Amino acid sequence: MSPRLLLIYPATHKPGWVKYFQIPSLSLQQVAALIPRHWEVTLIDESQEPVPSGKGYDLVGITAMTHQAVRAYEIADQMKKEGIPVVMGGMHPTVMPDEALAHADAVVIGEADQVMAGLLDDLLANRLQKVYRAPLPTHDSLDIPWSRREILDGKRYLTTQTLQASRGCPYNCSFCTVTPYFGNRFRYRDPADVLAEIRSFPRKLVIFLDDNLLGDPARATPILEGMAELGIRWGSQTSLRFAEDRELLKLVARSGCIGLFVGIESISGPFSLLAKSKGQTPQAELMKRVRDAGLILETSLIFGFDDHGPDIFEKTLRFVEDCSISVPTFNLLTPYPGTGLFQQYEQEGRLLHKDWSRYNHSEVVFRPKLMSPEQLYRGWAEARKTSYSWSSIFSRIRKNPGRRLTNLAYNILRKGPNDRLKEFDDTGYTDDVTPECLREPEHA
To answer: Are both 216 and 84 inside the same structural domain?
Structure first.
């Protein structure tokens, strides 16, 4: 009888009809691709279906970002009660392995690609180790298998045509976990391999789940040139600085890009990506270039940095209006474990708690420097509601020349969660908001 593996992606809330506009976990599809074909592999996305009993499985694998950790531990505890070995991986177990081991038999630290084969061999030989630590990448190439999309058959998503062309980041922002755990350089797959995987997709829409697809323009260019010949439509996340190169921007548009998600982070202070070095183009001009190229531009802005006082909300709303950002996204600063920011706030005694389920960019989990937690929450909620009023939406769409129907649909999808934001109470709790920009990589 073939050994059986159950992979689980925990849900932190019931998404309702919005689940049909979600995309699936790429990390678990990539883990599934690492499993020898004589194994029987089942993937459960709890937002789509209930978690079954673990009986009959030889191993249960659970991934978790920080906001999923509490639910992941509940599932792991239940599986262990049933006598099924549990391995946990993903960003939160990577940075909190001892905590995860209180609930799991083994923990994968870092990328599973390099350790999964040994883990399975150890399991079948009854010598499963507690920790499987992947070495920190030191090279600039990325060699990963194509994800197993067929494992998602029967589930309904916006698209299952997702992939990664690159990993890693050299910038090491203090609120981000990418650099310390996934390498301080951009690692790219062979362009021919990326394009071959895209050709295997039956439909035209493709989503890249890279942290910064265009981070190294020279290495991204062959991928873009290949996509320009395929007639696809795609979106991804990147740094706005790619638009410094007008020819690269033209190639991005010609390659079929619909829209890009970029981090501005703050309109002021040391964490602002609006600051420019000598000779660089102001980001407001770069945004205009991207819009004029017909691309939808979604920007991430974070409230709660130490230089943010109560006036930051109005200033940010004016900035969003002046720049006519296609889709603005506002998040609350979240000091994730494993980041320099978490370490700083813990040392300063500014963390309000360590209830990981509330580390979700939608609740205040620390004590801000220049305002109260309530002021931060109320200002953030009001900014979101104001930016997604009908007048603001239509003003943005009028000023953006490209893909107006797509842009309108995207804004309407975002309007609902913003309208449903709850008032601040003693806990600052809100359960109607889906995190939109999680600064934790979901890599295998």
So the answer is: no
